[in-house]
Amino acid sequence: MSERDSFLHLARPLGPAPIGAQPSTAPLSVVIQPQAIFSILDHSLRRPQDQDRVIGTLLGSRSEDGTEIEIRNCYAVPHTETAEQVEVDMDYQKQMLALHLRANPREVLVGWYATSSELNTFSALIQNFYGQQGDGTWPHPAVHLTVSTVPGQEIEARTYISAPIGVTAERAADSCLFIPVPYEIKYGEAEKSGLELISSAKDREDRTQGIITDIESLERAVQHVLDMLERVSNYVNNVLDEEASPSSALGQFLMNALSLAPKVDPADIERDFNAHIQDVLVVSYLANTIRTQIDLSNRLATAALTLGTGDALTGTGEGGGREGGERQKGGERRGGKGRQQRTVEA
Amino acid sequence: MKSFFVAAAALCSFATAAPASPFEMMAPPPAGTQFYSLQAKSSATAVNNQWVSLKTGSTAYTLASAQTAAAKFFTNQYKPTGTYAFHNADDTRQVALQGADGVLLYAVDITNPSTTSIPSGQLMEWATFTIDNNNLGVKDGSTLTNRTFVAVRGSDGGYGLALYDGASNTTQNITPITLSIVKIRMPGPTTTLLIEGTFEELTDELAQYIDNLKKSQNDESSNVQAECAQLLQENKKDDVLKKLVMGSQALNQAPEKEFIAAYNLLIHLVRQSPNVGMFLPRICNHLTAPITSSPANGAGLALSILSTIFNTLSPTNDMRYNVLLTILRVIRSSSNFDTLRPQLKQLDQWLEAWEMEEDDSRKLYLAVSDVAAEAGEDEQAYTYLIRALRTIPSDEASSQEARELSLRALKSALDHPNHYDFQDLTDLDSIQALRNSDPIYFQLLEIFNSDLLEDFNDFKDEHDGWIEQSGLDASALNRKMRLLTLASLAASTGQTRSLPYAQIAKELQIPASDIEMWVIDVIRAGLVEGKLSQLNQTFLIHRSTYRVFGENQWREVASRLDMWRNSLVGVLQVIQSEKARFVQDKEEEAKQVDQKIEGLQRGQGQGPRKGKPRAMIDDDMD
């Protein structure tokens, strides 16, 4: 999803407003969660061979004033297009929507997607269907998300809302103006690093990628920071050698960033670190002592049980025995299991 | 020399072998065609990263530095040879290589090349390009191995584009380049207005609608519909549109629900005319007039239509500029700056795409600045004022207009309560020009840029009453000067990073009881960060802003960067050595376990009790 198209979004078309509120023309923005994009791409992969694009319903949430729409989820809706007509399985859409809303009561219908960047008169028809009163998003505008899925080319997403066009009712029913609106794909740090890991497997022949350990990722991060530092100090050296033109704003910024490091003596650090190490040692010592205590008490408890041979005891000891068996390791566990088997046989 | 003849022969034979018209004419290319630009890569900086472009009215390809100027090609494969034709904009024009002797074959733009169109005495070939690793190559049967594309320096200092045979001598000034093929991002759908119906039907409906509107306003004389029908029969579409656009003034009285739909239809119709530029200014004009039917949302409605007009024009169309100016007018009159703010970051990109003159860019920046000032956004207003100033070329720096703008910027910078950085101002040519025209202002700027409170007081003594006369706020200036002085003091402490109270009081000329207030103020202004130590009567500085960022500061940055890097390298070494040790330990452990097993097995001989030793190891692990 490289650079954006250049467009201007200043106002949305005036729509009907909830009772008691002024209708507003405040511009809106769309936030897309990546899982929605993934399922759209997946849907596009599974489309019938003769179909250029497939469509589906977008679900998500809408801020109270309607200026921010978040697309969280989506599902496919079967449709067929021929040169003359488009058919959307409305029953299916209704049923699916009802089921989805039962599972996710907080999500609402926000619009629809298509897996081609193209807009045509069928798009207008479908858009009006999704924005209509009753089953549609009315009184809010329906969002149309297009995701281009041409193989070999970058994936491009665009979001639109629509405005009416035409002065007669019949004209307005099957036509509309698509207004591009700004969107943002939001994903968290965890999702990003996970995705990076997965996508790094795509260049390998066996299509596998090991998960890196904490220490490796630390090493990688340090390396990364070093590279960045290298770049910055290159620039600074160039400035000093009068090869690059200095930008005082940049210098000011660097200075501020570098001043963030606290001013401390190495001796202080040494002292603090040693104190910290001692704390850690004490904690680990205490933890060990407690573990030993627990172990000991467990062994004592099971020892008492295994000593008793009466049938009455096996019945009551079952629960305790299992607990003990779970906590203990090695040889003791085997003993516990054996005993349990006996109880089952009995 | 011999090899050259061979090559020339090969070229000739290919040129004649090319079919008269290898492709059907189907200009322009179908929607969704991938377009490419060609970018020159070279070790010579003068031509590196330049774009292959075609000047209007010329047929020879040249290099241009702006990507926006780059010609857009699409490719077509010529099946018999597997090579490609590079078409410019439509299917009839394509890139050909042409030259008199074959040493340099110039890249030219040819319409419908055929064997008959080759000028006599010239070599010419087309559809012989290869795409190799995203670089442009030529495969035409020539046996020369060192052929390369070159930039040919012309007499006007520009660069032409040619293919050099790599062997012959040439008197031309040539620089070898490779041409890399850059995919152009597909533009968004060009049409977002989707309505069915012919031009005639739609105009008729709109005309009728306008008539009805006018009639409801007791204007019985209107008869746009009949006039349009008349003109349509004469097939004067532009005249019909003229009538509609004239009549569209009535749309301002349309009920707010129908307003957008009606205007969108008008835009759709106007877009079909080849003379869009004639109608749009008028429509824009109508939209700046108040919309009588919707006092509350009028501005929003107008903005929504105007942004539709803006968006339906192609991104490089400079008519967008005028639409944007209209939008700024509407926003200004409706104080709607908040809706504009998120869009402003695209401004530079747009100006680049429209290839605007500096005068026009300045006008736009000033308009934005005015809108921002009106909305009380002083910071934004100032930023755009500075940008406007930057567009003034250095040879016009002392003009009257430049002087007025510079003074305006200077005054607003001085008066602004939270603006402390004057270096961006002093860097400007037009501000430097004030040194001659308004020396007192310039002196004041210099004081605020780098001097201390004492100098400011000297200035006040020297020019008694001048500050009040020029309409500046004396108390605000005093306060600002004190804060800046304190920042300078903090910056000058160097490695000690502490400032005794006594020094602050002396330099700021304030009583000792006020010191902490001033320090808190300067921290709040973001100039300095630090801690006050009442016990030691000192101010401990964590960070301070340097008012003048000179070489010493850059050195400081460099040394801190070095320090950081060295410590990080140390950390990295520790991590790596620990990791290596861990791996080694692991191996040793594994080895030991292996040895143990082996030893046990050997010790047990061929004993059948395999379970026992394993159990022991199990216990060991526990």
UniProtKB/TrEMBL annotation, chain A:
Pfam families: JAB (PF01398), MitMem_reg (PF13012). Its main location: cytoplasm. Component of the eukaryotic translation initiation factor 3 (eIF-3) complex. GO terms for molecular function: metallopeptidase activity; translation initiation factor activity; translation initiation factor binding. Keywords: Cytoplasm, Initiation factor, Protein biosynthesis. InterPro entries: eIF3f (IPR027531), EIF3F/CSN6-like_C (IPR024969), JAMM/MPN+_dom (IPR000555), MPN (IPR037518). This is Eukaryotic translation initiation factor 3 subunit F. One of its GO terms (cellular component) is eukaryotic translation initiation factor 3 complex, eIF3m. It comes from Zopfia rhizophila CBS 207.26. Gene3D superfamilies: Cytidine Deaminase, domain 2. Belongs to the eIF-3 subunit F family. Residues 320-335 have a biased composition (Basic and acidic residues).
TrEMBL record, chain B:
The keyword 4Fe-4S does not apply. Pfam families: eIF3m_C_helix, PCI. It comes from the Eukaryota. PROSITE patterns: PCI. GO terms for biological process: formation of cytoplasmic translation initiation complex. GO terms for cellular component: eukaryotic 43S preinitiation complex; eukaryotic 48S preinitiation complex; eukaryotic translation initiation factor 3 complex, eIF3m. InterPro entries: ARM-type_fold, COPS7/eIF3m, eIF3m, eIF3m_C_helix, PCI_dom. Residues 583-599 have a biased composition (Basic and acidic residues). Residues 199-234 form a coiled coil. Residues 377-546 form the PCI domain. Keywords: Coiled coil, Cytoplasm, Initiation factor, Protein biosynthesis, Signal. Residues 583-622 are annotated as: Disordered. It is found in: Cytoplasm. Residues 1-20 form the signal peptide. GO terms for molecular function: translation initiation factor activity. Component of the eukaryotic translation initiation factor 3 (eIF-3) complex. Component of the eukaryotic translation initiation factor 3 (eIF-3) complex, which is involved in protein synthesis of a specialized repertoire of mRNAs and, together with other initiation factors, stimulates binding of mRNA and methionyl-tRNAi to the 40S ribosome. The eIF-3 complex specifically targets and initiates translation of a subset of mRNAs involved in cell proliferation. Belongs to the eIF-3 subunit M family. Belongs to the CSN7/EIF3M family. CSN7 subfamily. This is Eukaryotic translation initiation factor 3 subunit M. It comes from Zopfia rhizophila CBS 207.26.
